[in-house]
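Notebook B, p. 112. Complex prediction, attempt 2.
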Amino acid sequence: MEDIEKTFETKELTISMGPQHPATHGVLRLVLTLQGETVVKCMPYVGYLHRGVEKLGENRTYFSALPLSDRLDYISSMNNNVGYVNAVEKLFGIEAPERAKFIRTMVSEMGRVSSHIIWLGTHVLDIGATTPFLYAFREREVIMDLFEMLCGARLTVSYPRVGGVRNDISQEFLDQLYEFVLDFPSKMDDYETLVTENRIWKDRTVGIGVISAEEAVNWGLTGGMLRGSGVDYDVRKYAPYDAYDKVEFDIPIGKNGDCYDRYLVRMEEMRQANRIIKQCIEKLPAGPVMADAPKFTLPPKDLVLKDMEHLIHQFILITKGPTLPEGEIYMGTEVPKGELGFYFVSDGTGKPYRMRVRAPSFVHASVLPRLSEGGMIADVIANIGTIDIVLGECDR
Amino acid sequence: MEPLEIAEKIKGMFPDEVLDIREFRGQVSVTLRKNRIRDIARYLHDSPDLYFDYLIDVCGVDYLGKKEKRFEVVYHLYSIKHRRAIRLKAEVGEEDPTIDSVVPVWIGANWHEREAFDLYGIRFIGHPDLRRILMPEDWEGHPLRKDYPLRGPAKEWRGFEAVLEKSRRFKDYEWHG
């Protein structure tokens, strides 16, 4: 056998994978240098979806830049909105009322479930299991329908607003969501029966893309990528925002830092998200859904359509923006992919002087060479699935 | 330890480097000279009672006409062990837009610094692979600078011109001839 290997002449081969490759989850391009089937060098190229969100944000008021955040991580836009409005509220120095906080917590956990479901479906599909993908989209559809009922949009929701949420939720919505929440654990069992102990799945993920805890922190990984390596860092626990300090949930952590542990962590996160949604429905307090801070929040839409003063007020806030103190804030929130941070520099005008988006997908894409080099080319696909990136957020 | 105490501690260690300490909404920013940024980063990372092991973010800011030094490189640090955050800001002048890279301290700074180079033109000395990242490699200008227009010229970028030209050529080709 060794003699045969010696007689083969192998030379390095460079191939370009993507940006249209279906397994790269968007427009990620990898230039791989291969020695046989072993990856010698992996070089990611991003930027194919660069739309200049940060530049656009600097030229809009804080209110009209909100829809830009939908287009970052477009499969969990609700979480991006929540992150954006939390950062702006911190800059403005206002706080959303209790009911709005619970609603936001609820919808962002719904976003987390829908995003993790997509991750599960595509990750498993890439590795060769078709069935969980179909099941996963069945559940995602329910959440999308609920979002549509909530605000009229399925993907780019823009439902949370600076100072609260756009409109109150209906009893019908709560009933349907509660039904989904009660049903969801059995759906999770379905996925786990199909995947968790599946031998092919374990062969493809156990011991693949291993990264140690120290290294993961040094790389700046967050979310499931970091917790899979055994670090319990979660913004929802470390710096609670919205109603996360009023609900009970656990932070699942892995041990080995490989693809399989990250899979287990994200699966448990879905169950915990479900638990949070259930608590939010049960504890949902009564009251207004918009903060009483007229200088910093948009007036209610029905008054804008009837009343001249409110119309003028809305016009001023949208076109000129509020008057603010000079200063700068950074606010991180836990989105399904990791820590999404917004850094605002205010120069006192109604537009951000600098709007910086710290995108978790950008950091996670940068770790891909570290995970893939030295492994097999088939494991590159497993690694792309496990880092769970969305290129809209990575390229901004 | 409160964030302000950390800032004072940095000032105690590097008295000539710290220019300003400011607090806003409970967050502390320390403005620094750029010269010894890597030493300061190394100190914050290694010192056991500070232990800022997690670099959240590195980004540039352009203060065109607002400040004496045009650019600032902003570092957001977090200590997972102590649950503390701090913001460092290093001033970088327009005439010499260079600063030491912190990749030897936090490897995760790699792409963030590439992005700051791409969008602001700040060069990071000692960076292992300083290339453009979001814009095409032959792009001219740095889009996030304040003097870069929001709307580009009517003329298409030459890379896209080449694509259009190629599609025109393929259109004329007789595929079934």
